[in-house]
Amino acid sequence: MEKLVIRGGNPIQGTIRVSGAKNAILPLLAATILTEEESILYDVPNLRDVRVMKEILEDLGIVVREQRDHQGKLIFRVNPKNITTTAVNPNLTEKMRSSIFLMGALLGRFKEATITYPGGCLIGPRPINLHISSLEQLGAILTEEAGFIYARTDQLKGTEIHLDMPSVGATENIMMAAVLAKGRTVVHNAAKEPEIVDLQSFLNKMGARVEGAGTDTLRIQGVSKLYGAEHRVMPDRIEAGTFMVAVTMTGGKLSLENICSYHMEAIIAKLRKAGAKIQRQGDLLTVEMNERPKAIDVKTMPYPGFPTDMQNQMMALACVAEGTSVITENVFDNRFKVADEFRRMGAQIQTDGRIAIIRGAKRLSGATVRASDDLRGGAALVLAGLVAEGVTSVLGVEHIDRGYERLEEKLRVLGVEIERLSWD
Ligand code: UD1
After folding, report:
1. Who is most buried in 34, 160, 274, 408, counting CB within 10 A?
2. Is 305's C-beta closer than 6 angstroms to any atom of ligand 1?
3. Cα 256 from Cα 237, distance rounded (Å)
4. Pocket lining: 200 vs ligand 1, CB cutoff 6 Å
């Protein structure tokens, strides 16, 4: 087991490069299944979730070769020619909920797929009803037995789908199923996240005909065959946002390279309200902070609203801000778990359903805290450790590793005293 040990109090100074986006690479890897030709993905983030997805693909018979470019960034060459099974290994799906969108890709190419319920329950806290009903509308027949979903179809057929909620994963699943369906699919109330645009761009390089990504209506004209393609994964806006919050908390000056700043409007606006000075120039963004952050109110919403994946980090900021902040979580039911850990560090937080009220303290105190299965909560604990008095130990680092590439190494470059240590 490993923990991150942080000695708080240092301001952040320096430059780092943002990695490829976790939430983009996972659907891109699923999309490689849609052809029998090799695809090449550049700027692949070396994350635990990506490792699990790679294992899932390899278990299906796909060959994934890893290379490094001249800067040491990871390249995946994915060859899905000799897929031997369309049943996704349940031991691996358990480790990653995102494996659900393999269903659309497998159905698209092979007309069949078997997958376990991620989390084991259909109408649970993170349901997959929209994925299921959308694939059924496209002509898939789904049956459930002993925790497995068996999906098959004679031919997927384009149709009009109205999503009750702009689910990111369901939108991606539909895109991957519809690109090889017969005829035209229109998705209303589609998710508008930048990662959907990245997926559209890769699919179209493969020969698909998808348009409308980034708006709430997607139009997909099915084609009979797709081809291998090359694609560079878009930058991770949540990793970038996490580092921007870090410097807003510690003070100092941070430059981030490899940024799409127009994906980050909601985050930039909030951090400016907290007092950060933010400048952008091409794919470079600079954040400077010279004062104690001011309290901020945050309401999470689907894109282009404030991202739920940045909510816990904003709570860390609110814990040390001047004044009282109100955070409203509108996307997920229960995303304030980290508040208990912040309280161990001296934070004053009251939660009631989807609302959290945080009275900012001048200082937090170092403590031993535990990252849980919400990886963003884990990162938020590290942020709190950056400004806490004394030493903070964050246990459960494996959760943080799901979505952050070498978090402690990047922070060390910026002047933070942080180490990864083993413990039993
Ligand atoms: C993706 C992101 C995750 C992010 C989330 C919201 C990936 C790999 N993960 O997750 O980091 O927090 O978007 O931006 O990209 N819902 C249903 N039925 C469904 C599907 C979803 O009711 O069938 C609900 C969920 O419970 C949730 C909301 O829709 O309340 C949004 O979930 P969704 O957009 O699907 O999130 P994910 O794609 O799982």
Report:
1. 34
2. no
3. 11
4. no
Point out the catalytic residue in the list 121, 122, 141, 355.
121
Same domain, 46 and 133: yes
Q: Which two tokens stand for residue 193?
A: 């996240």
Per the structure block, which two tokens stand in for 260? Answer: 């799409």
* C-alpha span between 190 and 196 (Å, rounded): 9
**Is the domain of 255 the same as that of 298?**
yes
Q: Does 233 sit in the ligand 1 pocket, CB within 6 Å? A: no
In sequence order, which residues have a C-beta less than 8 Å from that of residue 353 and are 6 or more positions away? none
Domain boundary among 171, 204, 232: 232
Inform me whether the pLDDT recorded for 202 exceeds 80: yes
Alpha helix segments (H runs only) across 44-128: 48-59, 90-93, 102-110
Question: How far away, in angstroms, is 99 Cα from ligand 1 center?
Answer: 13
| Residue 30 structural domain | 22-232
Q: Which of 95, 128, 168, 197 to mutate to test the pocket of ligand 1 (most atoms within 8 A of CB)?
A: 168
- Residue the block writes with tokens 């997909």: 220
Q: Per residue in 364-391, pLDDT tens?
A: 999 999 998 889 999 999 999 999 999 9
Question: Is the model's pLDDT at 125 over the cut of 60?
Answer: no
Instruction: Give the rounded percent of residues in the chain with a pLDDT score beyond 70.
Output: 98
Question: Mind listing the pLDDT tens digit for each residue in 18-65?
Answer: 999 999 999 999 999 999 999 999 999 999 999 999 999 999 999 999
Q: What is the pLDDT of residue 97?
A: 72
Measured from the CB, is residue 331 less than 6 Å from ligand 1?
Answer: yes
Q: φ and ψ at 158, to 5 degrees?
A: -60, 145
Could you read off the pLDDT of 215-250 as tens digits, one per residue?
A: 999 999 999 999 999 999 999 999 999 999 999 999
Of all helices (H) and strands (E), which one includes residue 16? strand 12-17
Query: What is the 168 CA–ligand 1 centroid distance (Å)?
Result: 6
Number of domains in the chain: 2
Nearest atom in ligand 1 to 193's CA: 14
